[in-house]
Amino acid sequence: MHVSVYDSLVHKQSAGQKMLAVLIDPDHIQNLEESVRRCNESGVDLIFLGGSLVSSGTIGESIERIKKNTDIPVLLFPGDELQIDSRADALLLLSLISGRNPELLIGKQVVAAPYIRKSGLETIATGYMLIDGGRITTASYISGTVPIPADKPEIAMCTALAGEMLGLKLIYMDAGSGAKYAMSAQMIKAVRDAVKIPIVVGGGIRSTSEAVNAWRAGADVVVVGNAIEEDNTLITELMNALQDLQQI
Ligand code: 1GP
User: Fold this and answer.
1) Band of pLDDT at residue 64, cut at 50, 70 and 90
2) Nearest atom (ligand 1) to Cα of 25
3) Which of 109, 138, 206, 221 would staple 19 via disulfide (CB 3.0–4.6 Å)?
4) How far is the CA of 228 from the centre of ligand 1 (A)?
5) Residue ranges of domains in the chain, CATH in brackets
């Protein structure tokens, strides 16, 4: 029987199992095959693929290169509608609920919807929330939106709650790629206490201790991109830290 990516994610969440997702930006990754093999060996749960700007190569080509080396589900994390490709396992259908840019709340999705339908991709309706990480990130610049202030967990909490009430299936809290500071435990916990749906946390996570902080505060999935591009041995370290955490 085919189990959807979302169902297996929820299954792990309800079993109390934390997850690691590795974000691959086709424009930035140096040695894609080697990183993917490392993900495979260490048991990474998910691969996210995409970026605010993807200019070199194609998403499809990257999916094929990933899939030659692993069966880990590949989830599209699209910067725009051009990054939709049916060869992936699922699509994070993002609505930027922390911002007030109508194009990214619903406009792009309207244009992409028939396209997504045709692709047959599993879609996961995702409330995407940018949280201030100490610098202007590509995501906040490109989206033309102001992130939620880092010291206002109550705004993040109400935003996530509204997203869940509107029927979104996943909350993605992002300090933005290359954020100066990873998100505080207090911020993650506020959202965790408010919603039942799975929470993804990423942006600026560069060490096992920052990832463990995020898992402990309530993230179901921690996403790491930049730091892994610089040193892919971190993938193994993060998975070891995750296993240690699960044994406690
Ligand atoms: C960005 O959450 C992701 O959208 C990952 O961020 O590249 O800083 O790990 P980093």
Assistant:
1) very high
2) 7
3) 221
4) 10
5) 5-247 (3.20.20.390)
